[in-house]
Amino acid sequence: MIEVENLTKKYGDLVAVKNLNFKVEKGKIWGLLGPNAAGKTTTMRILTGYLPATDGKASVADYDVFEKPNDVKKITGYLPENVPLYPEMTVHSYLNFVSEIKQIPASQRKEAVEKSVAISGLETVRGRLIKNISRGFKQRVGIAQALIHDPQVLVLDEPTIGLDPAQIIEIRRLIKSLKGERTILLSTHILAEVTQTCDGVVIINEGNLMASGSLEELTASFKEKEGVVIKLKKGEKSILSLLKKIHGVDEVSLVDDEFKIEWTKGKDVRDEITKLVVDKELGLIEMRPLAMNIEDLYLKVISGGVEQ
Amino acid sequence: MKNIWAICKKEVKAYFTSPIAYVVITVFLVLIGFFFYSLVWWFNSQSLQMAQNQYYYQQLNINQMVYSPLFHNMSIILLLMIPLLTMRLFSEEKKRQTDELLFTSPISVNQIILGKYFASLFVLLVMLFLTGILSIFVFAYGNPEPAPILNGYLGLFLVGAAFISIGIFFSSLTENQIVSAILTFGALLLFWILNWASYSAGGMWKSVLNYLSFFQHFDDMTRGILDTTDLVYYLSFIFLGLFLTHSVIQSRRWR
Ligand SMILES: Nc1ncnc2c1ncn2[C@@H]1O[C@H](COP(=O)(O)OP(=O)(O)OP(=O)(O)O)[C@@H](O)[C@H]1O
Ligand SMILES: [Mg+2]
Known about the structure:
By secondary structure, chain A is an alpha/beta fold. Chain A folds into 2 domains: about 1-215, P-loop containing nucleotide triphosphate hydrolases (Rossmann fold, 3-Layer(aba) Sandwich), CATH 3.40.50; about 225-305, Alpha-Beta Plaits (2-Layer Sandwich). Chain A is built from 11 helices and 14 strands. The radius of gyration of chain A is 23 Å and the shape is elongated. By secondary structure, chain B is an all-alpha fold. Chain B has helices at about 1-15, 20-50, 55-60, 60-85, 90-95, 100-105, 110-140, 145-175, 175-190, 195-200, 205-210, 215-220, 230-255. Chain B is built from 13 helices and no strands. Chains A and B meet through helix 2 and helix 3 of A and helix 1 and helix 6 of B. The complex binds adenosine-5'-triphosphate and magnesium ion. Adenosine-5'-triphosphate binds near residues 37, 39 and 41 of chain A.
């Protein structure tokens, strides 16, 4: 339903998104996960037709975003990072305005507004000026706005930001309830949001794709890997290349003062590592098995410890 | 058409829920009222003096003595007021990031621009219409010719419409409303007084500068002359303003 191929976006010299590839199947919820400045908002702006890409392709429901922007806009609901609200309008008149510009026929507008008010739980504030309602309600008006034309595809940029814990749970429940008929792409910094609401995830950092796939796929792929974390007295960067040279080692990274070493399941290289440590007199302080899951991967991404 | 109407409605509502429209209209009317009063008073005193002389009395013409200068004053006040009306049109959307809603909705950039343009035109019409009330007194107590007055109003409307198209252009350039207003004001003033430069210029430049000046075209209309070249001038000005706005918005997004 949502497809991104080799997508690249440059702001002048700054490359915000680099060769991004991912695909979201119809009826699924996917999370776009990444730390600040990862390029999440940029990707979503391109998908919704707000920004052009520098290179690459993007399509929604088989409509090319750059060639058929209007077809894409008709079937896509979008909650931008900063909820686009007019403070001097009431909630009701705002939603009414949105229903007009989203091309809902006049005869169905009233019903559409009612429905989105009900889904987003806005009954109590519908007559109030937007500038006077609380942050959480503003966020909900944003969600109502995205849902008003009953879109097949929803793009939600950090839908739970600025909400209190009870509201976060409620909004997540709301998003889950929208699943099935709709395809949803949501962005977040929070891993828990992905594991609780999403079927799949795209992890990006500084515009680079770090991992993507359904949650099952990703966990399965981690099961095929094993690893250890070692702590050395001489924890210098130069040791990274020594460790990499060991036959069978797939990946080595230095996080804080600990080395993470990974290999494919079955090819246990622990003996070789110990041998290297003893030969070079590196002074082993600690060696423990590496927990392999998405959390781990994401922590690595956030702490910048991933090497491509 | 439906989309233009939706945007236009929203903008008109925004004008009248914020104080902007009321303040601009009120200040405009107060100033025009003042000018009108002084001009009529002056006309009256002139008529009393000239009443002794039948020949001069015949020469007195309320159209020339009251309306022609009044229209000039109105156009100058419009030049001061219109930047305040247009400054928010795109700057505010950008600042509040509501442009993200507009540009991700299935409506075209042209429809957005036209919707906003018509909303400002509506406020202009309200302003001009309200000044028309003053003329009721003139028609009640005197006998001016209606045709030149209507012609003058048409001129004012066209001048205002051209001003708005410049204003909307500068509003698309910046997210700062003050900057947008100042740039609009500067540009309008420059176009207004362009004919001053024509005094020193020679040959072809003289006529080019004269042609480009707002003043030159407006002057004719206040004296009741409706020329197609003036009409063409204003319409091309409006078109150019809106076209540039469109280019700015597209290029900003496609960079
Ligand atoms: N209009 C712009 N002009 C220049 N650079 C920009 C612009 N918008 C974003 N960037 C840069 O692009 C990079 C990616 O930004 P983006 O907003 O997509 O990140 P994000 O993943 O949404 O971050 P966050 O989690 O903080 O919202 C950042 O380095 C940002 O500074
Ligand atoms: Mg963001």
